[in-house]
Amino acid sequence: MTVLRTEELAPRMRRVVLGGPAFDEYLASHLPATDTYVKLVFPSQDGDVLRTYTVRWVDPQARELAIDFVTHGTEGLAGPWAAAARPGDTLRFRGPGGAYRPDPTADHHLFVGDESALPAIGASVAALESGAAATAFIEVDGPEHEIDLPTSGDLTLVWLHRDGDAPGSTRLLDDAVRAWPWPQGRVQAFVHGESALLKTVRPYLMDGRVDRKDISVSAYWRCGETEEGFRAWKKQQQDAVIRPAAPR
C-alpha cells in the first residue's frame, strides 16, 4: 500500500496512514478483531524479513488504514522505516490475522500493556460499547508519551511512568494490577507487551480472577533480545506448550 501521510503521536510514536488501489484488497480480508495485525515485509540480502504490527484503525469510507510505530532511532527495521516514511512511499505486508475483541457481555474490561501494546489497546477501547466499564494500565516513559485514546466506554485510564528507568521490568504494571480493587462480575482481560508479563500479571489474573477463556495474553517483545532472538524464544515457548509430556 502507499503512504498517504504521517502523524507524530508522541516523541517516539509515529502513525503512518496508508491507502491506494490495494486498500480494497486488504478490506476484503479485514477482520472484526481489535488486535488485527499484519506482517510487514522488509526486503534484505537474505530474503524478506517480517515484522508484526497492529492495524490501529481502518476507514472504509476514506479507504485508509493506520499503523502506529514505536521508534527507537536507527534500531531495527520497522521503526527507522516509519521515521523516514513520506507520502508516496510503499509498504508491503501480509495478513491480516487476529482474534481478540471486547466481549459486550463482560462486566468489566481490563487492559494492561506498554507502548508496544498501545495500538491494540487503543483499537480495543475504541470498540467498547457506550458505557462499558473498563480500566487500562499503560506503562510509558513519561507524561509526554501519553496519547489520546477515544472511547464511548466508561474507561478509567491509568498511565504509569518509568521516569528514566529502562523499559521491560513490568514491575509498574504488575504492582498496579495487584493493587487494583477487583471489580464485581466477569472480567475480560487483555495483557500484551514485554514477555515478563507472562510471569507476573498473567498468573495473578489466572489465579481465580479471570477465566482462561476471558484472557488474551501475548508477548510482543523480550528485553535484551533482537527481533530475531525474540521470535526464536517465542517459538520455543509455543513448542514447549504443544509438546506432549514424556512418559514416566
Keywords:
single chain, about 250 residues, alpha/beta, six-stranded antiparallel beta sheet, five-stranded parallel beta sheet, globular, disordered C terminus, oxidoreductase activity, SIP_rossman_dom
Can you walk me through this structure?
With 248 residues, this protein is an alpha/beta fold. It has six helices and eleven strands. The chain has helices at 23-27, 78-84, 118-126, 171-179, 201-206, 227-242; strands spanning 2-10, 13-19, 37-42, 49-59, 64-70, 92-97, 108-114, 133-140, 154-161, 187-194, 215-221. The strands form two sheets. A six-stranded antiparallel sheet has the order 1-2-5-4-3-6, sandwiched between helices. A five-stranded parallel sheet has the order 9-8-7-10-11, sandwiched between helices. The protein starts with a strand and ends in a 6-residue tail after the last helix.
Strand sequence of the main sheet, in spatial order? 1-2-5-4-3-6
Helix count from the secondary structure assignment: 6
Number of strands: 11
Class per helix and strand makeup: alpha/beta
H/E element sequence: EEHEEEHEEHEEHEHEH
Uncertain stretches: 244-248
State the distance separating the first and last CA atoms.
Answer: 54 Å
The gyration radius over C-alpha positions equals 18 Å
InterPro entries: FAD-bd_FR_type, FNR_nucleotide-bd, Riboflavin_synthase-like_b-brl, SIP_FAD-bd, SIP_fam, SIP_rossman_dom
GO molecular function: oxidoreductase activity
Protein name: Siderophore-interacting protein
Domain FAD-binding FR-type: 1-103
